[in-house]
Structure formats: structure tokens, C-alpha cells
Amino acid sequence: MSETTNATADASDFDAYAILELEQGKLADADAIKSNYRRLALKYHPDKNGGDATQFKRVAVAYKILSDPTKREEYDKNGVDGVDKVDILDTEIDISEVGFANTLVASMISSLGVNIKTAVPMKVLESVRSGKVAIARVDVGCKLSESVKKGEIRMFRCALSEDDVRRGVVVSVTSPVGDKFKLLKFDGDREVGGLELSLQEVSAKFDSVKPKRSHAGFYFTGAQSFNYEPLSAVKMSKLESRDLAVFHALDNWTPRECVSTHAGEHFFGVYGDNFFEKCKFEFEVFTVGTEVGEGKTLDTDDIHAIEGRLSRKKDELMKFEKEYLAAKVAFEKAVLRHQHENEEVKALIAAREAAYCALTLPSVVKESEESAMGGFTMPTIDANAFKNFSFANPFAKK
Predict the structure, then answer these.
(1) Is 380 helix (H, G, I), strand (E, B) or coil?
(2) Please, what are the domains in the chain?
(3) Of 50 and 388, which is predicted with more confidence?
């Protein structure tokens, strides 16, 4: 039995809104759901003194349902019975808790192109909140080459001016070798209450760029930017046919949570998400319009233009899918009719030939030998005509 099933074993007692302590109930917005989940997950995490593993699982399942618009709609209509079967590959796992054998299996599956979703361990977030993690300073316009071990976090702080915020700020992390990582943003006061996770970006591999690399970033430019994740193998396998994949290619095209920021000191973290090896990465903070030499500047115009086209393309595909499916049904009917017409034409031609063969007089029945010989009469010879006939031998001696 899965953790999801365990956490929802008594469906009558499972109230996702109550578990996340959402007073607004079904009117609760995404921010309230996320905020309450983080607070309760820290409160009940099994690694903490006084933690509650069962309640932690219930909180996690409740959040998974309510944070997904589709699952939330199903839950509101049919209760937990409609959403309690969750694909394991769609569930975030804590690599630090699954052991070596399971980590090895996950690594092998991931190497085949299947995206294994992982969660930042609560003990890591707790260590940041309690101030146990060293924080390195990064100035705007600087790039650092760093590394972080699997399951650990490297923290950075950067002071942004009013001018920086006005121009637009990009916080970018790139792994030149394609390592997996998460880019995190923390808010709060280190002295009062500690730092709390507020934003998270999962690294994405850029397979079409040579050499391949992985990237994540925060784009505080005042314009909407988007995240993209290819269609998973699990969802691909559920499609009725492979030709429908193009219509779902942008299913995981989602807007990033934050488009702007404020002046002041900001805290970021890079969490190593590889299954075994440490993660190598480059961390940089710069403003839009920064000159990089040879008359070139760093701007996001191309990104926004292309992402705008992709957003429109997603809407176009949703409309075209209905047209395509209607045309596909009509085509399948046409194919069936084509087969039927082909078979019917062959059958009619055969029937025609048989009809022509049937249009003839009945065969004559054999009544005599003469008729059997086709009416031919053997001629007779009159022997009397040769009585007075003599034959002289020209070679006889005289």
C-alpha cells in the first residue's frame, strides 16, 4: 500500500482543507495553501522532536491534491476517492530517506529520461531557518563557480539597489555538465524567526543546446516568464495514440510565480539534487541591460518574444486538437468505408462474371456415338469398283 493510500485510508475522516487548516475552505487561494503546507510540514516532519509521521503524510497528500487545479476540482466533486491513486513518478520523494538501493533504482530510471521528482528535505530547510548554514555574499554582476554535495545546500546573499530593481534582476544558475539541482529563494529575518522558503525553481536540461547543460533562474524583470517540462513517460503512455502527443507537448508550460522583487538584501540557495555525485554549477546575479563587451548587452527580449509565441501556440493547439480529433474520426470512418467499398466492388465484379457465365443455352445431352463424335461419318469403300483393275509393275523384267 502506498503512502498516499495509507494517508487517506479512512476517506470519511480525510478533509484536505481541514488538514491544511484553511479557514476559507474551498475559497482558499494558492498562496494560502502553499503557506499553510510549509508551516505544517515543518511542524509535523518526522525528523523534528515531537514530529508526527502519519500527520506529515496527511499534510503532504492534502497539499498534493489542493495544489493541483485538476486534482482539486476532482476532490471538490467526488472527495478523496477520486484522487487517492497517485502515480509514483508524479510524487516528490526525499532521496535522503529512501536508502541506497532505492536511490540506485531511481537513478537508473532517471537515466532513461524519466523525470523523478524529488523534494528538498525538511531537515535542510530547518537548518537554513535556524541559521546553521553559512551564507556567501555575491555582488550584482558577479559569477561564482561552485559545487554542492548531494542532499546539501549552498547559500548566497545579494543586496539589490532601487536602480537594480528598476532595470530588472536575473538570478541564474547553470550546470555546464547537466547536473540536477534546485534554486531556492528565502524570505524573512535571520535574527527573528529565521529564513523561510518562498520560491523554488527546478533545474531543466537544455538538450537542444550543445554542449548540453541544465539551468534554473529567477527573472525579476516585471514581465511574465515561464517554466517548461517535457511530457513525462507516464503521461505519454496514457495517450490514446502517439499522434496526440503534439497537443500535450505544452501541458507543463506554466507561468513562474514571481515577476518582480524589491530593493534590499535577498537570500538564495542551491540544493544538490543529483542521486550520487556532487553538483557543479555557476551562480550569477545581474541586471537587464548589463554590457558584456563587443557592444552586446544582457536582455530578456528574445526570451519574452519566444515565450509569448509558445503561450499563443498552447492556446492554438487546444483549439486545433478538437478540429484534429473530429477530422480523425471522419478519416477513420472514411477508411472503413474505403475498405467496405473496395470489398463490395470486388464482390459485384465477381457476381457480374458469374451472371455472364450463366447466360447460355443448356448443354446437349450425349445420345449416340455419332453425336459423341461431333456429327462426323466415316466414309465407306465399294470393293466392286476394283474388280477389273490391274496394276502393272514398272520394274518387272520383260
Answers:
(1) coil
(2) 3-86 (1.10.287.110), 124-328 (2.60.120.380)
(3) 50
Burial class of residue 277, CB neighbours in 10 A (0-12, 13-18, 19+): middle
Q: What is the C-alpha separation between 379 and 385, in angstroms, rounded?
A: 15
Measured distance CA(186)–CA(198) in Å, rounded: 5
- pLDDT at position 4 is 47
Cα distance between the two ends of the chain? 134
Prior bond of 379 cis (ω within 30°): no
Helix residue ranges per DSSP H, the chain: 3-7, 16-19, 30-44, 53-66, 69-78, 99-111, 122-129, 162-167, 233-237, 301-358, 369-372
> What is the H or E stretch that residue 157 is in?
strand 153-160
| Residues contacting residue 141 through CB under 8 Å, at least 6 positions apart | 285, 286, 287, 290
- pLDDT given for residue 375 in this prediction: 55
This prediction has a pTM of: 0.65
Q: Cell numbers 518387272 label which residue?
A: 396
CA–CA separation, 225 vs 243, rounded Å? 29
- Which residue in this structure is represented by grid cell 540506485? 104
Coil, strand or helix: which one is 256? coil
Report the candidate in 185, 176, 142, 137 with the shortest Cα–Cα distance to residue 285: 142
Place of cell 466415316: 378
